[in-house]
Design brief:
The chain is an all-beta fold. It contains no helices and 28 strands. A four-stranded antiparallel beta sheet has the order 3-2-1-28, with no helix packed on it.
Length: 366
Amino acid sequence: MTKTLAFAGNLNRNALPGKGDGINVYEFNEQTGDLSLVSEYKSIDNPGYLAIDEKRKRLYAASEVPEWNENLVVAFDIDPARGELSYINMQSALGNATCHLSFDIARETIFASNYTVAPLGARPGNAIAALAIRGDGGLDPAFAASIHEGPKAILPTQKRQHGHCSVTSPDNRTLYVCDLGLDQIIAYDMPHKGEELRLSAEPVTQLPEGAGPRHMVFHPNARNAYVINELNSTISALEHDAASGRLRIIQTVPAIPEDFTQTNTCAEIAVSEDGRFLYGSNRGHNSIVIYRIEANGELSLVGWQPSQGIGPRNFVIDPSGRFMLVSNQKGGGIAVFRRDAETGKLEDTGKRVELATPMRIVFGRF
């Protein structure tokens, strides 16, 4: 019998407005959208971003503590029958404020993106680090890393780096790193264990000054990708040339209504599995923006759905495609929405999970 589990990471160290529980594990009903708590893993500091290897039954968490110069990537085994996590090991992310984890296509490497709030020049200070995954699911120490700022950096600049996301190209040839501080997406040749991070032939996609590219996602067609820009509240549609690895901006659209004049920062972005709709989250407007994806990769506005909370940092579509769960980091907990697969629209179910600081949810179907 198939079981669907939802894993929620929560701040639990110096967290406001309240303290979280670490990692909460819920059984999720794909028919009703109900969440039932089955276990908690509390022996971890600030598990913000989570990444799951569903096939191998493993979970990885970024331990994001801004006060530490080196944050951590923590590996767990998943027991689907009991809905419990068991610790394997942890390794340094070789940087500060680790805010994103991702895999290569083969699930042999995990990439840690570091936002960096430590003092300028503080060591180790890497924007991105690559860690090999062992056969037992544990992590080896990072085999490659890259600094984006300063005269000795791989891309010398006096701007402040803020690595916020790494995404593997569908052909596993290129690693793209969104650097919010540099307003760039930086492309590396895909590193394998023992190799350095080397810039690709066309390494930089420049976003507008002050855009703040935060998270990026590929379309199932592999020809298009989309990046949500945190600081100017926009979404950019990109054309992907697999042969060269080049990204080209073909359209930029607003993430918030034109008449919204208060402060807003964007956070998460996702494309539905069928490739028909794109979603992005707004913190300030406190909403999910919905766009239809046209045949040419451009976006047409569907509308906005209130997030039913404050600061929707993350959201995820469940494996059935029927529901979306939204993590309202600064109030409102996890809100459950029903998703219309034909229109892309969301409807509030009224179901809530009361968590103080939910940061990220991932699903596993076992």
